[in-house]
Amino acid sequence: QTSDRQEGMPYNISRSGSLKRCHDSSQDARGTYAWPQVSPRTAELARQWKDARGTYAWPQVSPRTAELARQWNDSIVKNCAVGDEDANQPLEKDSSPPVVGYPIQINFQDVHNRGGDAGDGGCRDARNSVNPELLTFHRHTPEMVDIFKSCHLQHGARPVKIVRASYQYAYDETNTEYLDCVNSMSHVGHCHPAVVEATSLAMVTEVASSGWEIDLGEPKYPKDLRQILPDHLDTFLFCNSGSEAVDLALQLSRLYTCGTAVIVVDNAFHGALDSVHQLSPKIYKSNNISKEDWVHSVTMPDLYRGPYQSDDPLAVEKYVADAKDVINKARDGGRKLACFIAEPMLTVPGCIDPPSTWLQELYKMVRAFGGLCIADEVQTSLGRVGSHYWSFQAQDVKPDIVIIGKSLGNGYPMAAVVTSREIAALLGERIKEYQCTRMMDAVGCAVLNVLKQEHLMESATEVGTVLKNELMKLQIKHEHIGNVRGKGLIFGIEIVWSKQSKTPARELADQIVYRMREKHVIMANEGDGRNILILMPPMCFTKENALILSQGLDKVLAEISTQRISQAVNTAMQPRVGSCEGRLGILQPQDDDDDSASSKGTVNLERVLQCYQDLD
Q: Looking at the record, which segments are called Disordered (predicted)?
């Protein structure tokens, strides 16, 4: 071995092959690390490590070095030494250019078992690399190191570690690109340049006040938003999340009607705040939480799996009759009706697109009993259905109150309650608490501009048509696809054990989600049986993306069909007991037993609410 000293390397490599803690003396005053007693080859690699404007670039390195760079984890091995006794062993040429500077989790066995000579290699732009001055170095005990040796990035049910995103793509710490098919909140695309620029500029002049008023002028965004809404919805109340907006809408309905009873749709989800979680049967049903006596559920009009299905010509009339019975019982219970709240397209229950006549009849009945009609557009707003800006327009109804979530700001924490001036006036002086801030004004206008300039609503129609056609082909081809439904860029795919039985195949849906993730496509399964694949990608989703999705799904289904699938998912792939992975790793409490009617014990309500991530 020869000695050489180079700065800028995050750990020490020695021939011993052992992982050991570095000494305090190896760190100099600038936070860099010394490189004592290394081989000539390692010293040469150190010389090739450059620090340019706070980012790492590594030109002309061997495939092994590129692999090592991909597997470098800024949170695990800052002060550890990695064995290098096989550093001179040859390695097959890697045709892909090295990517460096990304903080990832090391698979120690892969690093230890690979070697190679320095050779030619490309250099990819390291614009997203980590600034060494920002790294936090930790020391680990030998026991922790032993655990790290067996770690893998995507082992079992662990979520993907996303470090950045752009448009419809997300990237993990190895710079692997994933196609995002579920994140509807990034409405016009992750980190869209126009939205990012508007946010940055607005932040420079943002003023936050508490207890005193500031005249910020008249915002432009409410005027722009009003142009794409019906005339009777002329007043905007801005808040920070869809759950907060639901809470405010509920307050308004009770102030206006002087009633308390609320009608909801079975299996719906409207938020996990304590004040509104009772409006979400998805929560209280699955966790044995007592339903409040002022909440009344109508049967979800599911023509595929519901009590009345598409083969029944009177199915819609029967669903309407059931809803009328529920409203009459609510009235007979001595409580006055305050409102009926529902998604015009029921997304969380499994992307159920109810018959338009069903929703129209319910609106009529609710108004006949003196209640208000609230449309929850958190998941379906701003052109996602393709044919209209709002899904309630596609159902040809006129709600009294509309709730819009964080898609307004492309994920920025802003939401809105839109209603008439008459209803909003009941807030009195409190109406000042819901003004449009400068940040909301800038971000909201930017999202609307992108939506119009890039013709994303029209694109949702065109791309959605291609995607639905491809999914319908898969339904014909594969026994495990029972039903495909949706429009625009919002679809639900029923995964069943067989078309004839229609038995929900939750285990298959779980496996499909994980296997698609291995193919770098992010999906999620929802619904009461957790067997419905949900597709709600950013609006910049393309026809090419639709084909990649359908082709990958075709391969995964073919692989599953050739194997014997047990009722229980392998423990290495199964989420922890009592929970399941929903959209983008959302942990949602579930039954421990396979049977949907299984008995459940008492559930800690606080724990339940913590397990739900706000989907607004």
A: 1-32
